[in-house]
Amino acid sequence: MSEYRSHFEASDPEEASVDSYRTLSLLAVFSFLLGLASPLLLLSILWGIAPLCSILLGYIALKQIRYSDGGLTGRWLAKCGCFLSLFFLVMVPTQWIVHRQLVRAEAKRFTAHVLEMLKQEEITEYSRLQRSPFSRPESLSLGSLIGNQFAREDFVGMLQQPALRTLLNLKGHWEYQYYATEYQTVDQSERDYIVQSFAINWDDNGETRTFFVDVKAARSEDPKLGKAGWQVTDLMGGVRPVAQGGDTPRI
């Protein structure tokens, strides 16, 4: 009789199904769903709440599953949610840092080119680089600047800039050297602004003298053309770099 009872208990399908039933952890499900929403962090930093909550819920879910003695399942959902969240939490700041460094390198080349144009006294090229990169002409002549009233007024106003006049008065007998990136930011339209500081060295009766200039530049992108361009926004002279106790410049 006992052998028959033992055989009956082992082969009862209803009892076997009850013994094998395990509950799917809701926290694991929510962790997975929030992990799937983590790519939204690429659109806005405000979406960072999604991967953070996913990791928190995933951790709690894994802990509950571990101590449930087999009563809870969903371990792979919680792990996937945590993995996706961690991936985007690491990727987005890394992408931002890399982009920032690339923009800084581009700005360094562009601002050095601007100073090279001024050293060669190509004032019309400097005037051209102050215009929008997507609407300025390929070349600009002094005649076209003088012939147009509005262009002439802008050109005359540009020549009144103290730093520009100082560099032009040195008549190319000066050297420039990159010193530091003084300021970098991005506005709401995803336009990059940067301030590059350069040391200007010139010979004064056998004695080398130095002063600093800040070249302010802006980088904008045209989605239709699929390219980006730079323009000069200002040239400031007689500045003191931040590393030497100067104030942080602003755009």
Structure description:
- The chain has two domains: 2-96; 120-244, Roll (Nuclear Transport Factor 2, Chain: A).
- The chain has nine helices and six strands.
- It has helices at residues 2-11, 13-20, 26-36, 49-66, 75-119, 123-129, 142-147, 149-159, 162-169, and strands at 23-24, 72-73, 174-186, 192-204, 207-222, 227-237.
- The chain has a four-stranded antiparallel β-sheet, covered by helices on one side. A two-stranded parallel sheet has the order 1-2.
- A hairpin with a 2-residue loop joins strand 4 (192-204) and strand 5.
- Helix 3 packs antiparallel against helix 4, helix 3 (26-36) runs parallel beside helix 5 (75-119) and helix 4 packs antiparallel against helix 5.
- The model is unreliable at 1-11 and 14-19 (pLDDT under 50).
CATH topology of the largest domain: Nuclear Transport Factor 2, Chain: A
Helical run tally: 9
Helical content, roughly? 40-55%
Beta-strand percentage range: 15-25%
Quaternary organisation: single chain
Q: What is the ordering of alpha helices and beta strands? A: HHEHHEHHHHHEEEE
Major sheet details = 4 strands, antiparallel
Q: Report the CATH C-level class of the largest domain.
A: Alpha Beta
Beginning-to-end CA distance, first to last residue: 93 Å
Mean pLDDT: 86
Strand order of the largest sheet: 3-4-5-6
Radius of gyration: 32 Å
Shape, per Cα inertia axes: elongated
Count of beta strands: 6
The residue ranges in which pLDDT falls below 50 over 5 or more consecutive positions are 1-11, 14-19
Which class do the helix and strand fractions yield?
Answer: alpha+beta
